[in-house]
Every structure is written in structure tokens, then in C-alpha cells.
Write a structure and sequence with these properties.
The complex is a heterodimer of chains A (122) and B (933). Chain A is mainly α and 122 residues long. Chain A has a single domain (2-48, 64-103), classed as Helix Hairpins (Orthogonal Bundle). Chain A has helices at residues 2-20, 25-45, 66-97. By secondary structure, chain B is mostly helical. Chain B has three domains: 1-263, no CATH class; 265-522, no CATH class; 730-933, no CATH class. Chain B is built from 40 helices and four strands. In chain B, strands 1-2 form a two-stranded antiparallel ribbon. In chain B, a hairpin with a 3-residue loop joins β3 and β4 (888-893). Chain B is elongated, with a radius of gyration of 39 Å. The chains are: A mainly alpha (122), B mainly alpha (933). Chains A and B meet through α1, α2 and α3 of A and α26, α27, α28, α29 and α30 of B.
């Protein structure tokens, strides 16, 4: 069971990281969402895996650890807020640059886009 | 109480003074004098105690854990400096009233001056080294701001920057030195440090601490080779030069040496480092001063030279030398401040400070000329003036140094030589400015005497020069004794303050210096020719070049790391996370802990398989965005199932409803975005990314596996035990959210609200035109609001609202609660938007979502603050059971109000985000059903 669970988290992380490294905003958002699934599952599992032990008093013999559950519950909601924020950020970037590249422009090779040193004001 | 007050008053004055700027220069000058007058009155009653070498100590605790306390100490030494700061400060305020022009920002000037005064008083009155350090840095900062007071002058800005870089850098060294000292002694209190002198000097870290502390002192007091900032600080308005850069701030380093004298002095390292630095500075400053054509430049190098003299005296290590050093601090402050003020007057009245143009001013301003000439004579060490007395003591001490062999000749030689130079540049100051022909091409002609009151500060100081020079024992005797006693820790040697000690060797040296100096001045052209052979190094240019080099390096480094590519930042982030996580993982050894693995049942295995497959497929098919989205939604749903499977019904419900909202959100976003990701990354790069992703995934798998198979203990038993009795609910997760960890939840819904408002703000005035089709040739459906959907959606709303009310109410005892209910309500509302369009729905929503967020947060805060009314801490909850007809016994918890706040905030935030996106395009308005879909 633990191995399967660990593999699930690994698969979510790997897919998420790959998508995070893409050049367009949408895959990056999808990647972030996958990573947040993985992270939520990971945090949740820090209370260990229990079967039929929901932490509602009087409904089971033993109870799963309620604390990680409470933390993950808010994490899920905040994760949604962050996803929405990033999505909107990418929409705004699309509106401003007319392009959905994460760097805000078309060039995917980033090395020759180094910013000029700022004026030092002398 | 009086000591902290003395330090605090100028800062309060700095806040108040600018308010008087409206009333003109006189009003603000009077207002700025008040703190110093009160401070003097507050110090006066302590004199009795201090005169006999006693001290006053006021200590208040601040941060005992790091040894920082608000302790202030008044003894003879700090009194001497405090008087210099306060009295000369008062004269400067009066002087600046006439020096500054009416249109200048006098409010800023006086505020900064008072800030400086407070900081400087803080240095001399602090009895805690860390506290002193804070004021030390404050003087560097205020000095920076005052030098660059005329911000339009490039030289002023550069001079200020150089001063800050040098003194600030020295400040860092000093801080390190103080930390080492505190470490050796075990306390930062001055009393403890001074008492532990022997222990400090015997400690292995003593040379390091000494060097660092001296670095701080030398940079602040412009000692060679850090002297170069001081002449460039002369770009400041002259009151600032007179006050900060001759009388007080540059003496802070001297003060530090005097203050720590019992703790640090008396060793060979001290002797060589301090005395040779002082000697070099003394000679260099005196030599260069002679060749400066700028009036203030001459005075600046003369100041450097005199600071060197004082340093040398401290370095000598004898008690009499220390007395002489303290004496010279007083004398130098008096004559140099008056000279700077005189120079300021001349600058003010002639429009230039170039001594090649200013000549023969005696005819135009005899009054000022007399004052300046007396002060300059004191600087030269002419008898019957105060400068003579301390210089004699210095000459006498230079003869007492026990250097081996011929080296014994060095100090008296250097002293006499420096004295000769001093006479020469003083003679130049007098002769070149007030006589020597006629003025050449003055910007303001003819010059005349300054306003009456501008001369008063100079007159007072010059009067003091004469008084101290003729009646030293009466005028400064007691103060000097008290200060020397405090410096030397009570063991004051016998010394005599008289104008003449009879004919002896020091007097001979004075004669030599005097006539040598006059001779040197008369032959000045030869020296000028000699000096002109050397190429003058412009320290400012050297310094600027060094700064530019550092800046260039920093810019290149920044450009390399921060090149504006988010994609690259993502890569660097992932790589650093892997690197940071990898280090401890290598020590982990086994990945399967003591608990071992448990068996897998078939439904779980199938679920996991689906999840893994869909996650990978999402990545594989990510370029086809709709497909990826569908796969992503499958992943999210299976995650919800996983929560349900592993005993987390609340999480399952939350995940399910969030999943719906997320997918709607991403669909909405895709409406505006291209639905297809172009293939633009080269294959090697994709391979590289796959490898990184696999490494990350493997790492997470191993970490999870290792964690899951370890035994663990949790603090959760507390929550399980107290949920019912303390929180009144059986759903422990919900009780944790709204009760045990209610404050966390409050913070979290606040984040949610901020994110939603951020989204709203980001999209407020943005318009996006969606592409005409889905990118594969298909146009959008013309029936944007299908009849079937609308018919089904309408009755869904009340049903969904009822369900969410049920989920909300039962949340305290069964899976559910504000978060989940809020999401369910949101989903129901979103369905209405999807089915019937933005405008149609928006018309029927009678409130703004901003208000919903606000009301929600308000409920949560009120629920928390309500417990204040019963004198309980924030967010203490209470509950009771009431019996309702029909429903029966029913529990009412105050946490329910809090949960209601959560509920409303979640709805408001979710809806505000989605509606903001939906409203983006003009399209949604056109296709509203009103116009007939």
C-alpha cells in the first residue's frame, strides 16, 4: 500500500515538474496543479494511511490523524486560490504581450535575453 | 529617567521642528534649540556626582536574551562629549539660521541636524555596546544625509556616498569587534567590559577584537589610510562641516578609544597600531593642508591632522598622554568649529572659498577677520590660546616615549614637524585670506560683514579659546579632571594646567615649530613648486572607479542569474530543491522503515493505476490542452477518491468541489488562450527536462516511502480527546479548523480573500478577445446557452443551496463545514453563469462578491473578537444545546459564526475570481440570451 501511494506521489511530481518546465503558461498551470495534488497527498500521508478510521468521533474504532487533514483541507482551498491567481496572471500576460510564453515573449532560448544592467543614476 | 530623555529629546525635536518651517528660519531655529536647552538643564543636576569621578547609570531592560539593554551612563567623559555636542549644537543652530537661504529646505536641515544630535548623544551616553552601535550607525546615516543636503550637487552626492561607504564599512568592523568583546566578557554592558580589561587583553581573540574596534574608530575619525572621506565630506553646508566633521562626529572614533581605554589599551599591539596610525595621520594631514587652495579643504586636512594628534596621544599609552588627548578634544572642537564658521561666513559673503581669489578681506570685514585670526592662532599653537596648552602637553609626552635606540627621536621629530606645518597652514589661513593684496574676481563684490547674529557663535567660541588659554584651571579644569578620571578609570596622574611651565624642551619645540612654520610660509612658493611635481591623486575618482567596478560586477552577476526568463527561474528552482533535498536523503540509508509495507487491495491498486496513468498522460498530451485538461480532471477526481479511501471524508468532499471549480476555471482560461501548445523546445532540452522530472519524482517517491514506513507519534491525541468536550463537535477536522486552530483558518481565508481581490484588480481594465475557434478549425458553438442546460440549471440552484446549508450545519459533527459548503454553493452559482450567461445571471445577483468576502471576514473576526467580551482570548469558542421544535435537540456553537465567515469568504473569493475572468471578453456580453441565443 505504502509503495503504491509513494509511486502515485512520484508520478504526480514527475509529471508536474515536467510541465512546470514548459515554455507556455497553460502547461505550467497544469503542472502546478499536479504538483499541488502531490504535495497535498504527501502532507496528508504524514498522518499515515488508515482505512475506515475517519476522525469523526463515534463512527469508528480508531481514528486517523485529524491534524494533517485539517491542514490539507485549507491547503486545497488555498491551492485553488493560487491556481486561479496564476491563471489570471497568465491571462493578463497574454493580454499585455499578445503571447502566452512564460517569459512574456516568443524567444524560448533565454540566454540572449539578458536584461541590460540598470542605469546606475550617475 | 533624565539620561534616556536627553537622547530621546533631539529625535522628538526632529519630528517637531519641520512643523515650524512654515514660520520661517527664526521660528524653526528657536524650536530646534529647545531639546538641547532641556537636555542641558537635565544634565546640570548631575554635575556634583561627576565632578569627583562618579557616574550616573540608568538601565532599562530591552532584549536581555542578546544582551541588549537600554542602559545609559553619564560620567566625566560622556559629560564632556555631551556638552560639546549640546553647546556647539546650539551655536550651530543659531549660525545655520543665517547661513541657510530662505528658499532652502530648512525643515529637513534642522530635522536631520537634530537626528544627528540625538544619535551622537546616544553614542556618548550609551552604557551598552550594542546600543552604542545602533547610535553609531545612525550618525553615519545622518551624516550621509547631511553631506548630501544639497542633493542637486553631484560632488555632494559622491562625497556623501564615500563617507557612508567608509564609515559604514568601519561600522561593520566595529560591530564584529564588539561582538567578539561581548563574547569574551559575557556581557555588553560597559561596566562589565571595562572591568574585564585584563581578561580581554589575555584572551586569544584580543588582537582580532582590537583590530576590528580600531578599524571602526579609525574610519570614523578619518585616520590614515581612511582619511580621504573627510575632505570630500566638505561638500556639506558649512554648519554641518563645523558640527559633524570637526567638532563631534569625527570625534566619535576618538571617544570610542577613550571609552574602551581601560579595556583595550596598554598593550604593545595597541601602542603600535594606534600611535603609528596617529603619527601618519598627523603628519599627512598637516602636510596636505598647506597646499589646499580651498578654505574648507585646508580646514578639513587640518582636522585630519589634529585627529591624528589625538589618536597618537591615546596610542602612547601613558596616563598623562590620555589627559592631554582629552584636553585637545575640547580645544580642537572649540577653535576648529569657530574656524569653520568663519570660513562659512567668508564663503557666504564672497561667494567663493578659493584662497587664490580671496585676499585682503581685512579691509572689508575686520570683525570677522579678528575672530578668525585668533582662532587660527590657536590652531597654530600660539601661547595664551587654548591650542597652545594641549600642544605643549603633546610635545612633552612625545619626549617621554620609550622607543628603542634612535627610534626615540621619531615622535618628537614628527611632533615638531607637524607643528611646523600647522603654523604654516595657519599662517596661510590668516595671511592669504585677510591680507596679501586685493581680492581677485570675487563672485560677490564688495564683501561685507555678515548679519550681526551670525558672528555671535564665532565670538563665543573665540572667547572660549582665550579663556581656556589664559585661565585653563578655572575654565575647563574640573571638566577635564572629571573626563580624564572617567577615561582612566579613576587613576588620574598629577598634571598642571598653567600657561607656562618655564623654559623647557617642549617650549623649545614650540619655538622651533613657530618660527619654522613662519619661515616655511614665507618660502611657500618653493614648497608649492615641490608639491606640484607629484601628481595629485583624486581619491574621489579612485573611489568612484572602485564603486563602478563593484557595481559592474554585481550587474553582470545579476544579469546572469536573473535574466528575465521565468522558464529558467523555474528550472533553477527545481534544481535547487533537488540539490537541497538530495543531501539529507543520501544519509537516509534504508527507504523502507521499521513498519514495513502493508498489502494492497485490488480497488486501491486500480485507482492508483488510473491516477498514475492519467498523471503521466497529462504530461504526454499537454500540447493538446483540452485533452490535458480532461486528464487532469480525472487525476483530481481520483485524488478525491484517495482521500475517501484513506479515512478523510472532509478532504474528499473538499477536493471534489474544488476540482469542479478548478476545471471550470481552466476551461474559462482556455477560452481565451490558444488551445494548442506549439512545439518549440529542442529535443535535447525535452530529454533534459524528462530526466529532471524523473529525478524529482523518484525523490518524492523515496521520501514518501521512507516517511510512511516509519513509526510516528502525533500531537493529535489532544485534539481527539478534547474535540467533543472542548469544542463541542465530533468532526475533529472541522473542530480543529474553526476552534483549535481557528486563528490559522482566519489567516487562510484572508489569503483567499486577498488572492481574489488581486485577481479582480489584475483583470479590472483588461480586455481579451478570444480566438474565433478552438485552433483546429472548429468554431465555437452558436448556441452558447443551450435550453436544456438552462432548464436543468434553474431548479438545481435551490436544491444545491439546500444541500450546502445541510453540509454547513452538520459540519461540526459530521464531514462538512464552511469550506465545503461554500464550494458547493459556488459550484451551484457557477452553473447558473454557465447555463444562462454573465449578464443574465449578474442581473439576478443582488450583491457584489467583494462585499460577500468582506462580510465573511467580518463574521470570522467578530466571532473571534466576541470572546473578548467574556474576557477570553481571541477565538475562544463556546457551545450549548438548545431544543428546537420538530428538529429536536440541537447544538449551537459560537464556532458556527466563525464557520459562517469561512463559508461566505469562500463563496465570495471563488465567485469573484471566476466572474472576473468570465467578464474579460466583450463576447460574453454579446451572446447573452436577452438578445436571443
Amino acid at each position: 500500500m505504502e509503495l503504491v501511494f509513494a509511486l502515485v506521489i512520484g508520478a504526480l511530481t514527475a509529471s508536474g515538474v515536467y510541465l512546470l518546465l514548459r515554455a507556455r503558461t497553460f502547461p505550467v498551470v497544469v503542472g502546478l496543479t499536479l504538483i499541488s495534488y502531490g504535495v497535498n497527498l504527501f502532507l496528508f500521508s504524514s498522518g499515515r494511511l488508515a482505512t475506515g478510521a475517519q476522525p469523526v468521533l463515534g463512527t469508528a474504532d480508531g481514528y486517523a490523524d485529524p491534524l494533517p487533514q485539517a491542514l490539507v483541507l485549507t491547503a486545497i482551498v488555498i491551492g485553488f486560490a493560487m491556481t486561479a491567481f496564476v491563471v489570471v496572471l497568465s491571462l493578463r500576460s497574454l493580454a499585455d504581450h499578445d503571447d502566452d510564453h512564460v517569459d512574456g515573449h516568443q524567444e524560448s532560448d533565454a540566454t540572449h535575453t539578458a536584461q541590460k544592467p540598470e542605469e546606475t543614476g550617475k | 529617567m533624565s539620561l534616556p530623555l536627553v537622547v530621546l529629546l533631539p529625535f522628538l525635536g526632529a519630528i517637531a521642528a519641520p512643523l515650524f518651517a512654515q514660520g520661517g528660519r527664526t521660528a524653526i531655529a528657536v524650536a530646534s534649540s529647545v531639546p538641547a536647552l532641556i537636555a542641558l538643564a537635565a544634565l546640570f543636576p548631575h554635575w556634583e556626582t561627576l565632578a569627583d569621578g562618579g557616574m550616573v547609570l540608568h538601565t532599562y531592560e530591552w532584549l536581555p536574551a542578546i544582551g541588549l539593554s537600554l542602559s545609559f551612563r553619564l560620567d566625566g567623559l560622556s559629560l564632556l562629549f555631551a556638552l560639546l555636542i549640546l553647546v556647539i549644537g546650539l551655536l550651530i543652530i543659531l549660525y545655520a539660521r543665517y547661513y541657510l537661504k530662505e528658499k532652502e529646505n530648512v525643515g529637513k536641515f534642522y530635522a536631520l541636524l537634530l537626528c544627528f544630535k540625538g544619535s551622537m548623544l546616544g553614542i556618548v551616553l550609551s552604557s551598552n555596546l550594542l546600543l552604542m552601535m545602533i547610535f553609531w550607525e545612525l550618525t553615519s546615516l545622518t551624516s550621509f544625509l547631511l553631506i548630501s543636503f544639497w542633493t542637486h550637487k553631484q560632488d555632494a552626492r559622491r562625497g556623501a556616498r564615500m563617507a557612508l561607504a567608509v564609515t559604514g564599512g568601519g561600522g561593520l568592523a566595529l560591530l564584529a569587534g564588539i561582538l567578539i568583546l561581548g563574547n569574551i566578557v559575557g556581557s555588553f554592558e560597559l561596566d562589565d567590559v571595562l572591568a574585564a580589561g585584563a581578561e580581554i587583553k589575555a584572551h586569544a581573540m584580543y588582537p582580532v577584537a582590537l583590530t576590528l574596534v580600531l578599524l571602526g574608530a579609525f574610519t570614523k575619525s578619518a585616520q590614515f589610510p581612511f582619511h580621504f572621506w573627510l575632505p570630500h565630506a566638505m561638500q556639506a553646508p558649512t554648519p554641518v562641516s563645523a558640527y559633524l566633521h570637526s567638532a563631534t562626529m569625527v570625534k566619535a572614533g576618538i571617544f570610542l578609544m577613550a571609552r574602551l581605554y581601560p579595556a583595550l589599551a596598554g598593550t604593545e599591539q595597541w601602542f603600535y597600531m594606534v600611535s603609528f596610525t596617529g603619527m601618519a595621520t598627523l603628519l599627512l594631514g598637516a602636510y596636505v593642508a598647506m597646499f589646499k587652495h580651498d578654505l574648507k579643504g585646508l580646514l578639513a586636512y587640518s582636522t585630519v591632522s589634529h585627529l591624528g594628534l589625538i589618536t597618537l596621544l591615546f596610542g602612547m599609552g601613558t596616563k598623562l598622554a590620555a589627559v592631554a588627548a582629552v584636553f585637545h578634544v575640547i580645544n580642537h572642537a572649540i577653535f576648529k568649529a569657530s574656524l569653520f564658521m568663519a570660513a562659512g561666513i567668508i564663503d557666504h559673503e564672497t561667494g567663493t572659498r578659493d584662497m587664490r581669489r580671496i585676499n585682503g578681506l581685512w579691509r572689508y570685514m575686520p570683525h570677522t577677520a579678528t575672530l578668525a585670526m585668533v582662532a587660527a592662532s590657536s590652531m597654530a599653537g600660539v601661547p595664551l590660546l587654548n591650542g597652545f596648552l594641549s600642544k605643549e602637553m603633546f610635545f612633552a609626552e612625545s619626549l617621554q616615549l620609550n622607543l628603542p635606540g634612535y627610534w626615540a627621536w621619531l615622535p618628537p621629530l614628527v611632533a615638531t614637524l607637524a607643528g611646523t606645518f600647522a603654523v604654516a597652514y595657519s599662517a596661510r589661513f590668516i595671511h592669504d585670506v585677510f591680507f596679501n593684496g586685493k581680492p581677485v574676481d570675487l563672485p560677490v563684490y564688495p564683501p561685507h560683514e555678515p548679519p550681526r547674529y551670525m558672528k555671535i557663535p564665532v565670538e563665543i567660541l573665540v572667547f572660549a579659546c582665550i579663556m581656556v588659554g589664559i585661565f585653563p584651571a578655572i575654565s575647563v579644569g574640573p571638566l577635564l579632571y572629571a573626563a580624564a578620571s572617567a577615561t582612566l578609570g579613576g587613576n588620574v596622574p598629577e598634571y598642571h594646567l598653567t600657561i607656562a611651565h618655564g623654559f623647557n624642551l617642549p617650549l623649545l619645540m614650540s619655538f622651533l615649530a613657530f618660527f619654522g612654520g613662519l619661515l616655511m610660509y614665507s618660502q611657500r612658493q618653493r614648497f608649492f613648486d615641490f608639491h606640484a611635481r607629484f601628481k595629485e591623486v583624486d581619491e574621489k575618482a579612485v573611489f568612484e572607479a572602485a564603486v563602478l567596478r563593484v557595481e559592474g560586477f554585481a550587474n553582470r552577476l545579476t544579469a546572469r542569474i536573473e535574466n528575465g526568463s521565468l522558464q529558467r527561474y523555474g528550472l533553477l528552482l527545481v534544481l535547487s530543491v533537488i540539490a537541497v533535498a538530495a543531501a539529507p536523503l543520501t544519509n537516509l540509508g534504508v527507504f523502507i522503515g521499521e513498519n514495513g509495507l502493508s498489502p494492497v487491495d485490488i480497488p486501491t491498486a486500480i485507482g492508483a493505476g488510473v491516477l498514475i496513468l492519467c498523471a503521466i498522460l497529462t504530461a504526454v498530451f499537454h500540447r493538446d490542452r483540452f485533452t490535458a485538461l480532461v486528464l487532469l480532471s480525472v487525476v483530481g477526481l481520483v485524488v478525491a477518491l484517495a482521500f475517501a479511501r484513506f479515512s478523510a471524508p472532509d478532504l474528499a468532499m473538499t477536493q471534489l468541489s474544488v476540482e469542479v471549480v478548478t476545471i471550470v476555471l481552466l476551461m474559462l482560461a482556455l477560452y481565451y488562450m490558444p488551445s494548442w501548445t506549439p512545439l518549440e523546445t529542442a529535443t535535447p532540452r525535452r530529454v533534459r527536462d524528462v530526466i529532471i522530472a524523473l529525478v524529482a519524482g523518484t525523490g518524492m517517491t523515496l521520501v514518501t516511502l521512507a516517511m510512511l514506513t516509519q513509526p510516528f507519534s502525533s500531537i493529535s491525541d489532544f485534539f481527539l480527546d478534547n474535540s467533543k468536550s472542548g469544542g463541542g463537535g465530533t468532526n475533529v477536522v472541522n473542530v480543529i479548523l474553526v476552534d483549535f486552530r481557528g486563528f490559522d483558518t482566519l489567516g487562510e481565508i484572508t489569503v483567499l480573500a486577498i488572492a481574489a481581490l488581486g485577481i479582480y484588480a489584475m483583470l479590472k481594465n483588461t480586455a481579451l478577445t478570444p480566438p474565433p475557434g478552438d485552433g483546429q478549425g472548429h468554431g465555437w458553438s452558436r448556441d452558447s446557452h443551450p435550453l436544456m442546460l438552462r432548464l436543468i440549471a434553474s431548479p438545481m440552484l435551490p436544491l444545491a443551496l439546500m444541500v450546502s446549508a445541510y453540509i454547513f450545519l452538520r459540519g461540526h459533527n459530521l464531514p462538512g463545514g464552511g469550506f465545503i459548503a461554500g464550494l458547493i454553493t459556488s459550484v451551484a452559482l457557477i452553473l447558473q453563469y454557465v447555463a444562462s450567461g454573465m449578464i443574465w445571471t449578474q442581473d439576478r445577483v443582488p450583491f457584489k462578491y467583494h462585499s460577500v468576502i468582506g462580510v465573511g471576514l467580518l463574521f470570522a473576526v467578530i466571532a473571534g473578537a466576541g470572546s473578548f467580551a467574556f474576557s477570553y482570548p481571541f477565538l475562544t469558542s463556546t457551545f450549548d444545546y438548545i431544543t428546537w421544535p420538530v428538529v429536536g435537540k440541537f447544538e449551537v456553537a459560537s464556532a458556527l459564526v466563525f464557520d459562517l465567515g469561512v463559508y461566505l469568504t469562500v463563496i465570495g473569493a471563488t465567485m469573484l475570481a471566476l466572474v472576473s475572468i468570465g467578464r474579460l471578453s466583450p463576447h460574453s456580453a454579446i451572446k447573452s440570451p436577452k438578445e436571443g441565443a
